[in-house]
Amino acid sequence: MTQSRDGYIRIGPEVFMRVVQNRKASEKHYRRIDEVKPKTGVVRLLRPIYSMIGCMKYKM
Q1: How many domains does the chain have?
Q2: What pTM does this model have?
Q3: What is the DSSP string of 15-60?
Q4: Residue 12 located in a structural domain
Q5: Is residue 7 a part of any domain in this protein?
Q6: Which domain holds residue 10?
Q7: Maximum C-alpha span of the chain
Q8: Residue 58, domain member (yes or no)
Q9: Residues 9-42: pLDDT tens digits?
Q10: Do 10 and 1 form a contact (C-beta atoms < 8 A)?
Q11: What is residue 12's DSSP assignment?
């Protein structure tokens, strides 16, 4: 995994993630990505809410 200058972590080919502290920071990054996303292709954003975190299951 590599980290970019703006705090995004590359976790796979063309897959990036960033953990933010709160909803306000999340909205800021949503707006930022919306401004710089390419005109073609697909950009998907996932924002789990606090109540979802307890339901998540991870396999390692």
Answers
A1: 1
A2: 0.61
A3: EEE---SSHHHHHHHHHHHHHHS-SSS--------HHHHTT-----
A4: yes
A5: yes
A6: 2-53
A7: 36
A8: no
A9: 888 888 888 888 888 888 998 898 889 888 898 8
A10: yes
A11: E
